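It is worth pausing here to work through a concrete case rather than discussing structure prediction in the abstract. The textbook approach is simple: state the sequence, then state the predicted structure, then interpret. We follow exactly that order.
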Amino acid sequence: MALAGGPRQGPRSTAAHRGNRPLDRGIRALNEVALVFGGKSELLGVLSEPTAEPRQESRPAFLLLNAGTVGRVGPNRLYVKLARSLAARGFPVLRFDFSGVGDSPPRADHLPLDESTVDEVREAVDLLEERGTADRFVLLGICSGGYFALRAACADTRVSGLAMINCSGPLEVTDREIARTLVRHYRRIALHSSFRAKTLRKLLTLDFDRRGVLEAVRTQWTSARPSAGATRPAALDLEADVRTVCRRGVRTLFIHSEGDVGLDYMQLYLGAAIRELSGSGSLQFEVLPRANHVFTLTAHQAQLVESVGRWAVSLVREDV
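Step two, the predicted structure:
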């Protein structure tokens, strides 16, 4: 049905989500409502809200941003699990599809992706603010969603928290950045005890991208002395953005899977900045052992949900 002066809204569910999946156990009753909003495109999202009585302290609302072309359920339904877990802790959560992803149609104005995502996050924040859901907002994204969250946080001062999960850096990086990252990643995975048996098995059976490995090594060698006209590393802009949000007081969380190549990119290009900002308390950096990029195993999904939940609660405690 259409709401006068507001977004279109789907049927409301007040049923408790309990027991169907291991990660749903213990979750109290919550409301979930479908919303359609936006000016240039009809963006579709699902808002999860706790049904418990309001707490004394105000809690920020979370917005979960698409991981690549995966819809608002997230890879392995992680956004559903995160949304319901956070709602159980008292946080409203909106997970929505960017234009051209999932159930949201493409934009009519064909705005570039790096601009349209920032614009659509702003529209989502406007929506929650107008509904009276919250006056502070936390952006969370897996993979490219983490990068979009960072860019949107830079552009909107209403954002007070930022969680980047397995972010592999900007959308476009130089060949040299890719090569150095891959070499570091292959070396780390080959030597680390958590992956040694699996790596040895792949080597013995030649079950790996041999051409890709050789190309990465070759490019790394030839790129060791970049020419004067080399493209500026994208990591410089990424570091500048991270410093911008931290300087503004945005609580920032990086979570990386041990088996994810994004961990190598961040440590290689932002390692010094991350250590500096972590030491000042502006940024928290966490590595989940043995997990892969999309948290395939249920145990790793549970670790992620718990880590995000603990961090979310810490945001409220610091404000009290």
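Step three, interpretation. The longest helix spans residues 298-319. The chain has two domains: 8-170+233-319, 175-222.
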